[in-house]
Amino acid sequence: MKNLSFIAFYLCRWHTVRVLPSLYDCTENLKNTMWTDTHTHFDADIFAKTRQHDWQKAQALGVSAQFMMGVVPCHFAKIEKLAEEFTGTFFALGIHPMYVMPMNLPQAITQLKQAIERNVHNPRFLGIGEIGLDGFVDTVDWHKQVDFFTAQLKLARDYHLPVFMHIRKAQDAILKYCKRFQIQRGIAHAFNGSEQQAGRYIEQGFKLGFGGAFTFTRAKNLRRLAKTLPLACIVLETDCPDMPPAWAYRQTNYSYHLPRIAEQLANLRGITPHALAKQLQQNSKVLLQ
Ligand SMILES: [Zn+2]
Fold first, then answer.
1. Staple partner for 193: which of 35, 40, 140, 197, CB 3.0–4.6 Å?
2. Ligand 1 centroid vs 189 CA: distance in angstroms?
């Protein structure tokens, strides 16, 4: 009997440690809410062995959809296949500014154009992304980034597609090119600009992506923006496996962290997670049309 209770104790402990935390990440009042993770790299090799489990866990916690981003043409076919395989998975195709250095522009753009052509009637295909400019890294030539970005904006304009943009330390330049090519639909991912810049993006028609970064209490500017910007202009994202929230600092990030990120946003804004989810569904739906 003593042995049995000993075993029961350990079984219970195992259950608590290995299973229950995933469900307890999310509080009772988050049940029956549905979230969209508007920026993931679900195709990343780091998820190879756990992908099925990771997405099931995210779905169990209320993440009903994800927008998976393309970054290099050699992953486009894999992304298309994953979107077919995993329910609630939508995708964008594009060439990320951090990866342009070894690429040949005409060749890469031709590959992107062919991928757009074969997906133009695919209901899971969202648009062009992840594209943009990065003013932070000095290892990627700025002019080459601009050439790739503008070539992809042209495709977005020609095919009437929204764009999903990487804008690190390049907020003003990005907006200048979007205006030039009359791009008025998409997401400025991981937004971290000023209130004035936020206003200009919103005016142009973009949604602003917020994720793990604002969960750090030291991120004062981001927290202020997340709290005060019009809710109709905000979308939530993880950028998994990158940009983990405060409670997973320096760890791999997953879509299943999104409900807790959402809960923090609801707390910041003083609204219920349910009310937040309702508005955010409207916001991300615009990108699906
Ligand atoms: Zn990304």
1. 197
2. 8
Q: Domain residues for 282?
A: 9-287
Q: Determine the 3-state secondary structure of 69 from DSSP.
A: coil
DSSP alpha helices (H): ranges in the chain? 2-18, 20-24, 51-60, 76-85, 105-119, 142-159, 171-180, 195-204, 220-228, 258-269, 273-285
Collect residues with CB below 5 Å from ion ligand 1: 130, 239
Task: Render pLDDT for 232-242 as a digit per residue (tens, 0 to 9).
Answer: 999 999 999 99
Number of domains into which the chain is organized: 1
Q: What pLDDT shows up at residue 129?
A: 98
Residue 240 lies in a domain: yes
| Stated pTM of the model | 0.89
Distance CA 144, CA 218 (A): 34
Which domain CATH number covers 192? 3.20.20.140
Quote the DSSP letter at residue 137: -
Note the pLDDT tens digit of each residue in 179-212.
Answer: 999 999 999 999 999 999 999 999 999 999 999 9
Flag whether 53 is in a domain.
yes
For residue 19, pLDDT beyond 90: no
- Ligand 1 centre and the CA of 6: distance in Å? 47
Is residue 85, in this structure, part of any structural domain at all? yes
The answer as to whether 4 is a domain residue is: no
Quick one: tokens of 130?
């992840």
Ligand 1: distance of its center to the CA of 10 in Å? 41
CB 209 within 8 A of CB 237: yes
